[in-house]
Each structure stands twice: as structure tokens, then as C-alpha cells.
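Table 4 source record.
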Amino acid sequence: MTKINLHIVSFDIPFPANYGGVIDVFYKIRALHRAGISIQLHCFEYDRKPAPELEKLCTSVHYYHRETGFLTNVSLRPYIVSSRRSPDLINNLLKDQNPILFEGLHTCGFMADERLKGRFMIYRESNIEHHYYYHLFKAEKNLGKKIFFLAESIRLRYFQHILSNASLMLTVSKDDTQYLASVFPQNHVLYLPSFHNNDEVSIKPGRGTYALYQGKLSVPENSVAAEFLINEVWEDSFPELVIAGLNSPAWLTRLGAERTNIRFVHNPSDDQMLSLIQEAHVNIMVTFQPTGLKLKLLNALFCGRFCLVNPQMVVGTSLDGLCHLASNPIGFKEKISFLFNQDFDEAHIHHRAFALMKHYSNQNNCKLLVEILTLC
């Protein structure tokens, strides 16, 4: 069989795989490496250090400086795109005719370049980006950031037409599949769920003593969700609520400090986060923007006991049957009281494992991706 060589262009350095976007990238790379694919990885460096761990999985790893700052933002292109248009990147992509996997709209600045015409180019969608940024605009409290998010949303909506150049689009949710198929009826759009760090379920039966909310807390969507749980859901009579994640804003930490049964775990390690998820009795996840697939939900389903979410969290995922749903504060309070009186037993675990491996098996999804690369 001919050796398959693939360029992967990542919007960030995908290690450590400790937040939503890079989780899919890293574990996809790991799965493709295990399948014998030769990967030339290209990634942008701005707030993370080069990761030697990636060299074990890739034939080569190229790092590019991301051009951040005000002048980069003065452009008709979205800032997340214009800051990643490195001349070194396009020059490296032109050294061969291997297929290219662009991770996120962020990395697609050269997709319409005439020099790439005829190349097999895959767009990996993680969000409908202009929808995502519009929701960030609505959630943000800082006026300057609100203006930026709104402007970026408008620019992303127009820029997404560059995707007509993609040979294939791989989407993370069924709703996003339908959206892109309707906007780009001439393109091939395929649903391929996100890759993740779980090859099997690792759930502990029994009961925990606390509930967990976790996420990258510097993202307005997540900090607003945590605020909602603190202010509108959590009663003084409830068990402890642990809020764990990266870079919590000071205002949110202060808000939680006012409550005796709310505890923050700041910037936990991967092992610490896994332990928090497994030991929690209820993993609570809330989002106010139904975009993409929330990888923290997938991780909690593979590793944690009961999952309590709002409907927006499971839109287009087929995961609603594995979760308990609540759509308002009263619903959340009722479900919390109910779930803390239930055991998570072996029958729950077997049901969860069967359902997850049907659609969210890294091995099966990698096999499909390799078949695509074999044909391109």
C-alpha cells in the first residue's frame, strides 16, 4: 500500500490538548499516526511553547509566528485568519502535492490561492465561526471586546465563502453538516465527530459528593455559564459545586468566593481534571450558543457519572439520550436534587459505552478518514 502523506495546518500548537479546539486536532493526529499516516504538521505559535511531544507523532513539525496586534486587525479578512497568513506556510505547502487538512476557518487564508489549485484540500469545521463569534459578542461584558467580536462575526460570515474551494468539508455536528451543505450545495460535506482522548469508557460506579462545571473560563461563553449556575441555580442546601478550568476571570472567582458550597480549582493539570470528572456525581454543562460539538461533554460522558446539560449543549450530537436535560433554573434545581439521590451503577455504564462507541469511536472515525485519504 502506498504511504499516505498529509499536511495538517493547525490554528494553535495542539499540545497540551487541554481545551476544546486543540483536543480534536491532537487526538486526530495521534489516531492518524497509529494508522500509519505520515503527517507534516504546521501550527501557529503565540501563547504556547513548541511541543517536542508532537515530533513523536509527525514526520515534521513547522511553527509559524502569528502576527497579532492592531494593524493585523485593520483588514477585511477576519482577524483570526489574517493573523495566520504566513508566507512560510504557503511556501512549505507548495513543496509537494500532498493533501492538506485545514483545521478551522482560522487556517484557510490560502485556500483560494491559485498556487494550490488542483490540490485535495479538506476543511475541518469545529464551529460555524460567525455564529460562534456572534454569541461571544452577546456574552462579553467588556465594550471593546464586544465591538471586536461583532466585527469579527461579520467578517467571518463573508469570508466563509472561501470554503467553496474545499475538496471536502468534515463537520463535528449534524446541524453544522446541514448548514454547510445548504450554503455550499456543490461541495462534499461529511459528518465526522470530533476526536478525543478516550478509547473506552472509564466511569466509576457509585456516588460522588459534588457536582462539577468545567471549561476554559477565560472564554465568555464559559464564564457566563458558570455565573448562571452560581447566581440562578445553586442553592445553599445543595452539595458542593466545583468550578474547574483555565484562566478564570477575577470577577467570577470573587462571585464564587461569596458562597460556602462553591469551590474553584484553577488551571488544573490533565490528571487533576480527569480525577475531578470521574469523582463528581454530576457533571453539569451549560452553553448559550448551540454551535459545534462541546468536547468537554464528550469527555464527561466517557469518564464521568451523570451528565446534566441544557438542550443547546447537545444540539446536533445524538447525545441527548445519554444526558439529563434542563432548560431553566427550576429544571436544573429539580434534576440536581433527583440525581444526588441516585447511584450510577454498572447498567448505566454498559448503556453509556454501547451508545458512545457507535458514533464516537476514534478508531472507527480514523478508519473513515484514512479511506478518504486513500482515494484522494
